[in-house]
Amino acid sequence: MLAPCRNHRTEAKYNVTTEFPYLGLHSASASGDIGLVQYALSHGQPVNSVLDGVLPLHAACAGGNDLVVKLLIEHGADVNAPRRYSDRNRDVSAPIVGTSGSTPLHFASANGHLTVVRTLLAHGATPDGADKHGITAEHIARENGWIECAELLAECVAN
């Protein structure tokens, strides 16, 4: 049942000609489609491009594909890049993952992607970085029941 979906993805046209020229890289990063991520990067898509305040690394960390995360880092993605404010992501409401200042570690921790959390930490992610509400990745992991992620982050902060 998944074969038609996979074939459709690999045959998809990459050139996005909307007001969001980097949508393909973000979508491929979020879905873990390493082939499209490689294609986008090899055809000049900026690894730190911004779409609604989100970078491809944020999307990849939320999606949880460690290979895509590593590929983006190898191409220069900033492991501590905060989500940026934009008119499209007005985040004046209650603290949630993805508000301004959320880092790739926030996105990975919120979704319990322990392998991605380890990869980010191994590449210099700041374990106690907080978003604009003062919320850390450890707090988000704990709040969402990802205790192993939360404990790893707490241990890194303590050391």
UniProtKB/TrEMBL annotation:
Segments annotated as ANK repeats: 52-84, 100-132
Name of a matching Pfam family: Ank_2
Gene3D superfamilies: Ankyrin repeat-containing domain
Alphabetical UniProt keywords: ANK repeat, Repeat
Transmembrane segments annotated in the record for this chain: none
PANTHER family: ANKYRIN REPEAT CONTAINING, ANKYRIN REPEAT DOMAIN-CONTAINING PROTEIN 16
Protein's UniProt name: Uncharacterized protein
Species assigned in the record: Pisolithus tinctorius Marx 270
